[in-house]
Design goal:
Number of strands: 16
Structural class: alpha+beta
Mean pLDDT: 91
Strand order of the largest sheet: 1-5-6-11-10-9-7-8
Number of domains: 2
Helix content: 40-55%
Number of helices: 18
Strand content: 15-25%
Radius of gyration: 28 Å
Low-confidence stretches: none
CATH superfamily of the largest domain: Bira Bifunctional Protein, Domain 2
Largest sheet: 8 strands, mixed
CATH architecture of the largest domain: 2-Layer Sandwich
Distance between the termini: 51 Å
CATH topology of the largest domain: BirA Bifunctional Protein, domain 2
Shape: globular
CATH class of the largest domain: Alpha Beta
Length: 461
Amino acid sequence: MKVAKPTLPKGTRDFLPEEMRKRQYIFNIIESHFKKFGFLPVETPAQENLSVLSGKYGEEGDQLMFRILNSGDFLKDISPDSLTGGYKNVLPYISEKALRYDLTVPFARMVVMHQHEINFPFKRYQIQPVWRADRPQKGRYREFYQCDADVIGSDSLLLEAELITLYYEIFSALNLKVNILLNNRKILTALSIYLGIPEQLTEFTIILDKLDKIGIAGVVEAWNAKGFPESVGEAFINLDIKSTSHLDFRNTINRFQVLFSDIPVGLEGLSELITVWELLPHFNRTLQQHVSLDFTLARGLNYYTGAILEVKSLDTEMGSIGGGGRYDNLTGLFGLPGISGMGISLGADRIYDVIEAAGKFPEYLISAVQVLLIYFDDQTLPATLKVLQELRNAGISAEIYPDQKKIGKQYEFAAKKNIPWVGLIGTSELSTQTLKVKYLPTGAEYSWDIPSFISEIKKAK
């Protein structure tokens, strides 16, 4: 039998113990804050019916879905004519399901299916992987975790302010400096009206969403390629739209209130932004300092209808590490209209990359095991196992080397695993009921009874 070379699909990764400890550190902080804000956990399947996912993310999103081939002979019902008509003609015959692209659309589907079991407004959080057939690059993977928090069943702008606060508290707990960008989909609608292209709003926002990647010249070129009048790009540049810090919030709002004086949807969007802004200090008096208006923020997802949020790291260069927004009728796509929701998502994998690049993971994550007990000989093994259990009962992570090998080899094992404490019971320790202990980071050696050793470890944590 031919031996297969071990490989991974592009855009996926293995995680070794040290990486997993760091990932769990991120997940634990995120989840603890979700719970603190009153969100409840749910899960949805890894695969969804294509009828649920298709058309919810725009044309580009549909192309990036990982479709699942039907079981059995899925080609038997395909006519030769269908095979020459392009992949879209063939897809309905060979694939009925796909891996989930995000967590929000499956959540909306779940809400509709379980609407009689849910109390509205419903606050849920979800931490699960999603899959996108994107081109792998720095900070972008084909399999990655999203951490979502959504409230559905209320149109109160308190939700926007609360979720901005949640973002700030999570990233503060992770010791990351961030800028939370804020916009409103209604502003983008008003801009399309002002520029004379209201019927091309979707294409306008999808291209604008790429501003960070291709720059304003690239955006204008893409608009022109889509057949937009050249005047659109020129007028947009003249608007001089840019990210506005908290210090210029009022000036920016006032300028656009004049600009949108005859565009009601724009004035409505500005009014909502003012309300959210004025609520922020009630949650945290300094929160406004970490929020910026950015009227170019588009977020290409088609289902946003109100506020749009995006989080940028100030510690290192990276794409967005979080994003979200208001959606007024996502459940309507599944037969339950008029249910408004507001949600945020955190990209755990990108957050990991930012913390790693900034060197901000806590030192205690280096080792998950605190104590290694040496296997000295068979005579002292029962006493060593008794100590092992006492350490574990005291809540201390401990293990025993499973084989009777040279002491130096066992110490080397502890050093490679970054285990700080090594304990040994030899013949003399057995008679005195003590433990010979070495603290590897300094090389210091001690002789302690077990309660003293446990106390020392807990003191050092």
